[in-house]
Amino acid sequence: MDNRLLLEYAKLIVKCGANVRPNQLVIIKSPIEVYEFTRLVVEEAYKVGAKKVIVDYIDSVNDRHDYLYESVDTLTEIEDYTVSRAKYEVDNQACHISLTSPNPLALAGVDPLKLQAYSKAKGEKLSFLTDYTMNSIGQWCVAGVASKAWANKVFPNQENNVDLLWEAILKASHVSEFDSVSSWMKHSDSILEHAKLLNSFNFKKLSFKNSKGTDLEVYLALENIFAGGDEYSAEGVRFSPNIPTEEVFGMPYKTKVNGIVYSTKPLNYQGSIIEDFYLRFKDGKVVEYNAKKGFASLKALIEFDDGSSYLGEVALISHNSPISNMNVLFYNTLFDENASCHLALGQAYSMNTKAGTKLSKEELIKRGCNFSNTHIDFMFGSKDMSVIGTTYKDEEIVIFKDGNFII
Amino acid sequence: MDNRLLLEYAKLIVKCGANVRPNQLVIIKSPIEVYEFTRLVVEEAYKVGAKKVIVDYIDSVNDRHDYLYESVDTLTEIEDYTVSRAKYEVDNQACHISLTSPNPLALAGVDPLKLQAYSKAKGEKLSFLTDYTMNSIGQWCVAGVASKAWANKVFPNQENNVDLLWEAILKASHVSEFDSVSSWMKHSDSILEHAKLLNSFNFKKLSFKNSKGTDLEVYLALENIFAGGDEYSAEGVRFSPNIPTEEVFGMPYKTKVNGIVYSTKPLNYQGSIIEDFYLRFKDGKVVEYNAKKGFASLKALIEFDDGSSYLGEVALISHNSPISNMNVLFYNTLFDENASCHLALGQAYSMNTKAGTKLSKEELIKRGCNFSNTHIDFMFGSKDMSVIGTTYKDEEIVIFKDGNFII
């Protein structure tokens, strides 16, 4: 891939994604295979004045060996130095950049219960760090990086598939030789406008239906706010948490979701692919589910903790969206969620209810907010999706017709 | 390189090098470029029963950016989580594997004073970890791994230089398709025998002379013990700290070294190459020095701390040794030190004096032991080196003639 384009992309991640501030601590998580691109991001972060950049390289092959060979006791012992490091990040108001390049088969064959035990132990011990990012106290950004393993999944049997994947990533992220930063900002502004428009209707409920069998009623949290595109940190720094992004999303009312939803894209959960699954909700809780592939992983997700069988996000994306029209299945939620309406099981974003980041847990629960140590999106949009919104004045507004926004 | 040979080498590092014990914590430091080989070492460690294997990947390009962009204040702030992590290693009696694949130019252009300030701050804060490894409380092993950057330095302008470098590393390390572990053990036993023989003479002083101008008297510490090949951890586990190794080495008496010594091989110190240098000693201390190349780095080393201008090791290797005969300049002390007599500036090994690992600092000082937060070997052997040993009975014994052991 042309190095100028990669440099543009690294700049986009640093300047728009995390919007690194002068003298800020920057934490980067990166798969080991993409270290050459990660180095570009590090240098860009220093160039805009980062105080210190720490890269945590993740080697999914070693992780797999950890899961296979370590006892559950060892795996779930979250050591003091890990907690101390997380505290350092929060105390120093770090911003977080997470580079993702999934190896869809990396953790295949690992006992999902072992994965879950580890995630749970870590989630509990480091919940203060999850709060810090999920509540956007500091800026954070997730962006994709092409690797051979990922390209083999997305474009199998094509020799130049790493280049093809790069092209797809850069196109989805509005990166070109020209001013990618302004192009991205324009795009992000347009999503913010769209969210504003949706909020003006003051919906209390969304009803989803399609020919696959989805028939779902999702009440929205009290004082729901549709968000999308950029966010603002506690210190008021604008940032783009996801590159790319097309979605506007709101907060479901935890106990007011009823009906059935069918997945329309595979879900990569903890290294395993879950395919063709459905979830039936009663009073917000998943009461029945099945999957043609990856049932054990789906079960592990739903049983992860008390909150993981309830929804934490509902997101609207036209079937006729730029990423959807690329017609590439990325096997990576960061991308695939932008090609389809989706829901998330688990933790809700407090910013999706008015002044939510300043509310206590009790106040958020009253609004209908779900709490969990996980948050996993799954896709259910389709070309024949209909979405009807019901306002607090009981007016019914058609939001989606034939898979696309019509408002 | 043939994968079976790499697997043999990984086994050698795990089984003979660190000699990983069942249920032991294993810490691996690895340059990021060689992650594929490192994965083999991780799996071998788990196969012999490691409780947990933690890999710290080091990216020298990012390190260079840290040094270039971070302020000295930021660089020298050693955070609590780093100390907490080091404590975890010591408290859990970890064994340490350090894979090395130097990029000789990685830190070129970085201010040596900045490098030094960081090393010093880290050395002071983590001296308990240095003590743990330098005193062989836990097992540790350093071994080389071929990479493109290193191969470009060792075999420039040769397309297949990574393979050539692997061949050299594996040959030096006694690795073949056959039983590399027993072959290594035999080799290690022979070095132990040689050290035993030297100890039987009970030398108090070594005198070095060659045509390059070296003319140096090195008194040995009281109760000096020549060591070499394998060592034993506090718990009595035999291990090979260096792969490869050919040397037998003893402890100089800190304040009883006089004369001049000329280097015979380049020294790679903190990413810079120091070439053609000399050191003049008076009462143990370096009182005059110069280098044709890399003077600033040499200065930084000598001025690192109080102990870095005194010797901590004296090692004897025949010019006609297997690694020397390969006639390859590795630009890596781990290898080059085995092709030449060498000295180290800085910390001495307490095991080089009788029962030294059980002595207090005060007792060690009385024996003539040097203390420092660094330990850097440099090579001064040559094909015409003469070494004469003087025993406590004032007998003079010729140890080396024309560069080689004759006892």
Helical run tally of chain A: 14
Main pleated sheet of chain A: 9 strands, antiparallel
Specify the structural class of chain A: alpha+beta
Termini Cα gap of chain A? 39 Å
Low-confidence stretches of chain A: none
What is the overall shape of chain A?
globular
What does this structure look like?
The structure is a homodimer of 407-residue chains. Chain A is an alpha+beta fold. Chain A is built from 14 helices and 21 strands. Chain A has helices at 3-17, 35-47, 60-69, 72-75, 80-91, 112-125, 127-134, 148-154, 161-172, 180-201, 295-302, 322-326, 333-336, 361-367; strands spanning 25-31, 52-58, 95-100, 140-144, 203-209, 215-220, 227-228, 231-232, 238-239, 242-243, 248-250, 252-262, 267-269, 272-282, 285-293, 311-316, 342-346, 375-379, 386-391, 396-401, 404-405. In chain A, the strands form 4 sheets. In chain A, strands 5, 6, 12, 13, 14, 15, 19, 20 and 21 form a 9-stranded antiparallel sheet that branches. In chain A, strands 2-1-3-4-10 form a 5-stranded parallel sheet. The mean pLDDT of chain A is 94. At the A-B interface, α2, β2, α3 and α5 of A face α2, β2, α3 and α5 of B.
